[in-house]
Amino acid sequence: MKALLLKRLLQLITVVWGVGTLTFVLMRSLPGDMAYRIAASRYGQDNVNSEAAALVREELGLNQHPLEAYWHWLTDLLQFNLGNSMVSGLPVIESVQHMLGHSMLLAFAGLMVSILIAIPLGLLSAWRGNPLDSVLMGLSSAIRAIPVFVIGVLFVLLFALHWGWFPVAGYGSFAHLVLPSVTLALSLAAVSNRVVRDAAKQTFRAAFYQFSKVKGLSAWQTFHRHGVRNIAVPVVAFFGIQLVSMIEGIVMIESLFSWPGIGHGLAHAIFARDIPVIQGAALAMGVVFVVLNTLVDLLCLWIDPRGVEQ
After folding, report:
1. Is the dihedral of CA 78, 79, 82, 86 positive or negative?
2. Which pLDDT belongs to residue 101?
3. In terms of Cα–Cα distance, which of 237, 239, 221, 227 is closest to 307?
4. Hey, is 215 helix, strand or coil?
5. Domains of the chain by range and CATH?
6. Which residues, in sequence order, are CB contacts of 160 under 8 Å at separation 6+?
């Protein structure tokens, strides 16, 4: 356990430094005048000229040598200071906390819906002799082949614009959460239900599972005592692997539905060349990824303590 936590701590430090450094280098390698783009975001495209860009460049220190700017960023990071937005002037850490809260709400809702879809359908497909197995696997393959962005567009066209059941985009009520969370859930469930199915089939065919039936246990008792734990471990571990796809899906979904999360804010910051916000958002996603992976590992060890020995 201590080794795992130490390993994750070192991974967290590496991720924070690596993501921040890579973002720093990439944003300063983009073509175009960064000061002009920031001035346009502040004052509007029609009110920007070379003088406004020069003032922004001087104010934000964009005329510093890259190594000097990187050193200032690194020392601020060691003091947990992410700086202020180049566009709004607000502290980046406050903006990231606000956006991250909305993203976590969307991720949690999508994950819960995907679990409600994937686990029952996966167990149903794994049941021996079930004629629905081929149908459900074919349907999941079809959904898996569709990009999450396309699924979201189809939902907007059908449920928001055509039938008017839900708002097109925005935030403020439970109705705004439905379409983004279901879009995310479908993309996750299309893959995870196969993992549930395969894990369940392997468990149902195992000798220890068949032997428990011979001892006279009912189907429910056998599943409860010997099935749940053995199926849960690979499924939970797979959700940890899916975190990267989940974060990627959230970024696209938030941009599509104008959900005020970290993906939506990151897209706007990239367009405006708001480097502190971009770095803060990227660092937040990296930290969340490492923390969630650690929680997944701890959950797997709690479900099956034998994993400590491996």
Report:
1. negative
2. 87
3. 237
4. coil
5. 1-92 (no CATH), 100-303 (1.10.3720.10)
6. 166, 167, 168, 179
Helix (H, G, I), strand (E, B) or coil at 238: helix
Rounded (10°) CA dihedral 225, 195, 259, 36: 140
Which of 225, 200, 228 has the alpha carbon at shortest distance from 215? 225
What gap in Å lies between CA 113 and CA 118, rounded to an integer?
9
- Per-residue tokens: 152: 């979201």
> What is the spatial distance between Cα 85 and Cα 76, in angstroms, rounded to a whole number?
14
Per-position DSSP letters for 46-101, written without gaps between them: GG--HHHHHHHHHHHTTTS-HHHHHHHHHHHHHTT---B-TTT--BHHHHHHHHHH
* Chain segment 170-195, per-residue pLDDT in tens: 787 888 889 999 998 888 888 888 88
Two structure tokens written together for 57: 């460049």
